[in-house]
Amino acid sequence: MRFLLVFDFDHTIVDENSDTWIVKCAPEKKLPNGLRNSYRAGHWTEYMGRVFAYLGDNGVREDEMKRTMTTIPFTAGMVDLLGFIGENKELFDCIIVSDSNTVFIDWILKAADFHKVFDEVFTNPAAFSSTGYLTVQDFHAHRCAKCPKNLCKRKVLKEFLVKQLERGVSYTQIAYIGDGGNDLCPVMFLKKDDIAMPRQGYTLEKKISQLAQDLSPVECSVLVWSSATDIISYLKLLIKE
Question: Which positions in this protein are listed as binding substrate (predicted)?
């Protein structure tokens, strides 16, 4: 028996959006209107590139960003959940699939000593340039019309499962834990033995319940959570089985 836990990051592991949290580093903790209004739907990574350039232009450097990012709060119960998974790593493989970036996620997980809980992190690659500016790139290219142009989480999950099968690893169940609209695509890929765990009151939960109302429900089972302790309770039952 081996289980795969797939986590989104923003509003799932942490209780905020890491990309908007970084604005606390900006002058007066806000962005100019022109920059804020430059976002185009599906082109978030490009928009964040402009935000990071603005921060760099205003002398915001790596150490200040890191200090700010490591103050981001974890979601209720999440510290306990990640601790529980860490204690039971022989049963759980654990990955993050996120539209944040490698630098932010790395900082946050390492500061809280949770980086060992996760086997892999799939997110937009970021790095500091020689001039000290943070730069970010799209995670990959894909053909999915439903997802933002830089990341289709279903494609990531499918490719990860294929790679694991080649290593001889298959899963009794996949649990997908997320909150956002871009988490629906991978949830639609899950099979009847799997489980989707949408965060209560967020877009993913609303989209899943809308599908059920339209009589085209998702194939997997669904557990709505408001605190990550709800997820611990489920995992404990799973282990007992």
Answer: 19, 99
